[in-house]
Design a protein that fits this description.
- By secondary structure, the chain is of the alpha+beta class.
- The chain contains four helices and four strands.
- Strand 2 and strand 3 form a beta hairpin.
- It is elongated and about 65 Å long.
């Protein structure tokens, strides 16, 4: 069963002259950020995409490790990162994909001349066709 909210511990590692590294010990995935805010945003994004991928692949999602059991070095801090999965799932379902279409040359030329946004027109036509 898919959960709506997940909270996992992350370890932030600070090294002089380097981006802040962020590791999720429960998944063995990592990201980084140029400052604390960027690192935290990257961590949330990585956690959401990791969990989404696991859901899609029907993999077992591990229980979060207790933050109190993490063993940290002097240059590391831990914090809990949360994600709201409905928004992650929706964003993935609405991602764009590329499609190649074939048009008569005259229609392509006239459309370019008029500044037609091909993607928008195709989306509108498909939505009308499928009843969206």
């Amino acid at each position: 069963m898919k959960k709506n909210n997940y909270i996992y511990p992350a370890v932030f590692t600070f090294e002089e002259g380097q981006e802040i590294a962020v590791l999720f010990p429960d998944f063995d995935v990592a990201t980084s950020g140029v400052d604390e805010e960027d690192a935290f945003k990257s961590a949330k994004e990585l956690l959401g995409l990791t969990l989404y991928s696991m859901e899609e692949d029907k993999e077992e999602i591990p229980q979060p490790s207790p933050i109190s059991e993490l063993r940290l070095k002097k240059n590391q801090v831990s914090c809990l990162v949360d994600v709201f999965m409905p928004s992650i799932r929706e964003a993935q379902n609405n991602r764009s994909v590329n499609r190649t279409v074939t048009l008569p040359a005259w229609l392509n030329a006239k459309s370019l001349e008029l500044g037609v946004n091909f993607s928008q027109v195709l989306q509108e036509a498909l939505l009308e066709k499928v009843g969206g």
